[in-house]
Amino acid sequence: MLETGKAEVTLGFLLFPGFPMACLTSAIEPLRAANEITGRKVFGWKLIGEDKAPVQSSAEVRFDPDLALADAAGLDCLFLLSMPQSTFAKPKASMAQIRWMDRCGVILGGFSGGVFPLVRAGVMGGRTVSVHWCYEAAFRSEFSDVEASQSVIVRERRRHTASGAGAVFDMMLHMIEERLGRETMTEVACWFQHPFVRSDDTSQKVPAQKVGGTDDMLPEPVRVAVQVFADHIEDPVRIADVADAVGMSERHLERVFKLATGQSPLQYYRLMRLKKARQKVLYSTQTITQIAISVGYASSTPMTRHYAEAFGVYPADERRRLVGMRGLAGAMSPSE
Question: Which residues are in the HTH araC/xylS-type domain (predicted)?
């Protein structure tokens, strides 16, 4: 929680090439509105780069940093915004600066892919991290010793992490409420027609496969089966065993799945595993063989074939294409 005695709270946003622009605007706009509503500058912010060169966002819009990281002082919070693959251009100096800020009492955090360099900086110290569902597989493969949460926001011992842009907006609303009270927070939310404010323990919404809804909208037996599938990505479970866990026959589970999703349990399960593989193809440096094994295949050959059938492109080709599309400094080039 921020100190309430200060006249102005200053937030720093450390931008990496390819950072999600929506997360930045979702952080700044509610703070700007709070200042406007109260008629005073309660919140200030600084855009920060590792140096003062312009930083291009995910939407190819360039931002000019106000400060270089080495010159950033007087901040109450520092949030990292990046792609999962982003690395520090000057790792030794930049990570030392972030650790120095921690010792000075600055709240540290990350938005969306920004949690990756935040953890790499070595400042999480056993704390839980809010990880966007589409980065979860890559995060767990790189940081197996860090607890990844499905909560939209995690605020724990001067570490604030948010899974995506909507969650960032909610985090700022909580900050406004702590600073200015619920009435001002509600007015800010209404300015932006933000329908409700999610609490820290709200879980992320995850799309159900080929359904047009989210996992929590599926019938209970299907939800339970999907959770069993999710718990057995690396060590595939038999559909008959899943049916036993749900408490129905395999044939009955098949009918329920087809009715709810248009797919058989086996088709749904395979696509879940392939989507986890795709996360790692896009956002990790694991080899294709390592990825195949991590999602329950004995080798890369069948996984590669199923991947191409599901996504219309081979995993190695998708990696090369994505690196070319990004064309951004600070992005790790994944291994094939």
Answer: 223-321
